[in-house]
TrEMBL record:
Residue stretches making up the Fibronectin type III-like domain: 690-759
Keyword Hydrolase among UniProt keywords: yes
Similarity comment: Belongs to the glycosyl hydrolase 3 family.
Signal peptide, first to last residue: none
Swiss-Prot/TrEMBL keywords: Glycosidase, Hydrolase
GO terms of molecular function: beta-glucosidase activity
Matching PROSITE patterns: GLYCOSYL_HYDROL_F3
GO biological processes: glucan catabolic process
Protein name: Beta-glucosidase
Amino acid sequence: MQPTHTEKGTYKDALLPVEDRVGQLLSQMTIDEKIGQLVQPFGWEMFTKNIDHSISLTPECKEDLRHSRVGALYGTLRADPWTGVTLETGLSKTFAAKATNSLQHFQIMNSRLGIPLLFGEECSHGHMSIGATVFPVPLSAASAWHPELYQKMCRAIAAETRSQGGAVTYSPVLDIVKDPQWGRTEETFGEDPYLTTVYAKAAVNGLQGNDIRDHDSIVATLKHFVAYGSSEGGRNAAPVHMGPLELHSIDLPPFRAAVDAGALSVMAAYNEIDGVPCTSSAALLKDLLRKEWGFDGMVITDCGAMHMLAHGHNTAENEEDAAAQSLRAGVDMEMSGQLFRKSLKRALEQGRVTVHDLDSATGAVLRLKFHLGLFEKPYVDEDRAATIVGAKEHSDIAEQLAEEAIVLLKNEAATLPLSKNIKRVAVIGPNADHMYNQLGDYTSPQARDQITTVADGVKELLGAEHVTVAPGCRIQGDDRSGFATALKTASEAEAVVMVLGGSSARDFGEGTVDLATGASVVTDNPHNDMECGEGIDRSTLHLLGVQLELAKEVKALGKTLIVVFINGRPILEPWIDDNADAILEAWYPGQAGGRAIARILFGEISPSGRLPLTIPRSVGQLPNMYHQKRTRGKRYLELDLTPLYPFGFGLSYTTFSYGKLDLSASEMKAAGTVQATIDIKNTGQYKGKEVVQLYVTDVHASVTQPERLLKAFKKIELEPGETKTVTFDINSTHLELINAKGEHLLEPGRFVLTVGPNALEGSTAEVSVH
């Protein structure tokens, strides 16, 4: 039941301006209550589940809430091996809503001031709770080059999360990937600042909606602020070596755009930049974010980041110093909450921080709660969650996004699509029928019938009697006991689809697979194949285990080799690139990914995904983003710098021709515009979608620039033989550069516009700016 009245003229009065309510509430709070608002412990540890699916709060939880020692809870509904919450012990749908309501009710009814709790949840590619829709990971979503569809995905995630009580999500990840050996590559939108910026705005608009108080909206948290994807060697949380020019022109623009779009929360990154940890950087969190950009939301640490200041970065002498540095720098809440809880009051008593510092942080937390409307509507409708979480319309979005995100990298002699009249198809490989390997990191335990694997999808299309399945091997390890079965299966089939790649699946306790029979086996020591995800960084990008060996033996049978990669970062296998007849890159495509892959394999839809990052030929080429500077050099002794597949690349079952790029004028004033138009024709036999990409080259600039930068794109659909005219309105925002101070400057001179299907091809025209 929601509160039925408010106290007029007090902080409970919804008619008062938010700032007045914040000020009134702060004036009534004790130091301990203020510190409590900055503390966010792990929510799943605060209660136990009863047989009737109700919950019982732990004695420690009751004491914390009664004395206002907690302002927020992290991952209250999170379920995964890290939390230890399983399908059996976790709460799903209606019961999850009951749980958050129970916690909220106890807090409001038993604390002195009745300040509601803030429930923060993980929602990278779906709410990380039992029964929620599992969408494609962000890297996959970016491969669709369809931000409007991604915004619908975020809207669905917000609705599912808020229906169960969650009010904040720790996404989107706006890190620019510089080295895909980094395990969190899958959580990003790739290597390009413009593509990431477009998706950043779509995420904020989708998650927060038009009104953050709405029961379908949640707060977006931009992370990781900043340059977290640029770490040394692609190692998680390693130092970042970056000058202000690169920081302002490549890594900061997506954050700035998302702040301008109204994002209400930002997470400071673990890493340091040029010796200064982001968690204690007042230059980033106060001077830039708040003063220059006007951000008025809440800043939260990453989990354990404050501890790293004293035990890792060693820029703080002890935990009191770490807590004080973070608070002074502009941190408002600590995820996990341990240092603020233990040390902040002592830091205040020691004069390391002031009451003004504390009030500033507490005010930011309270302001967010007022904006969310939690004082007026602290509870959720417990029956509504059952109809919202995992709704069919959300599953449909997940499937459509997976379909549009799959990238066709190679299709020798029109190997694909396969005919549906085929008598037998062998689906082989460690990712052929492994549901968790298809879902990526930050995934909750799943019921098997909620996930469609590639084997499931092919069986749905052809009928189970036409499909044989064999894992052959695992992602990691040298176990070849499944080779004989896999090769026999392949030899008896007319077509072989090998589903290889990686895994971000943590140990969900689902047992292991007998490679010889393909049957599930219960064991005390299940085989964990995780080779990607948070904290799982690689020194190479080759396939692990004996996957490549299995592919070579299948090819030796004389069979057509169709490879489907399911993975969280690029895979570099020259043999497969040379010898496979067709290659699909699916990343982690989510719960409907197997169906989407099957529909593409058999031509129900034509692939339209395009790469959101460059795939190099060797890790020795890294970093190898398309937007590197002109001065990077030409080649190594062994090879040049050309990629295996360029940024923006992707094939279709049809072909497209690009006409001449025409400009409405060859000269432009600084405040003017020029129209760029080009005709795109479908010259093949299939209906298909093309991603038309506009790149800009600044011929001569005051500071060194990349050879070209993506500045716009449009995804269009064409029938066979159809031609469409695509128009881009070019203005100063397409041509300006960002300097080391973060200033946007349009310098006079010549600019080359290139419109094409990827970063290396296209039709060009030149415009001069006066």
